[in-house]
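Re: that chain you flagged

S.,

Sorry for the slow reply, it's been a week of failed gels. I finally had a moment to sit down with the sequence you sent. For the record, here it is as I used it:
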Amino acid sequence: MAIKILLADDNKLVRDGLRALLEREPDMEVIAEASDGREAVDLAHELRPDVVIMDVGMPRLDGIEATAELILSLPETKVLALSIHGDRWFAARMFGAGAVGYVLKNCAFDELLKALRIVQSGHTYISPNLPKC
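Prediction finished late last night. Pasting the structure tokens below so you have them in one place:
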């Protein structure tokens, strides 16, 4: 059964690129895209994805607030943060909100795939490129 994914990023080019790459994977299905945090939460409630790939910085409701709201009402949905922010402060805020993974946008696509599969299986993923404290 394919992992149902919701992409949440305010950059359409990022969403289009991720969708194109993810849809090549036989065990993954992009079921929707959101351009802001509010839309991500609303679509997650409607479609019940397995994993939300959540940008940290988005309009209307940022990724941190959207994650906290989503996890309160849909605790079975996994949130994988995808961010330009390599600062551990952002990662800590996302994990505090309920995310179970954090990947940097400059990672290789193979790392994103690995992170998706790890968080879907119930484990936590932290990008090895995130600076240590």
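What I noticed first: The chain has a mean pLDDT of 95.

Talk soon,
D.
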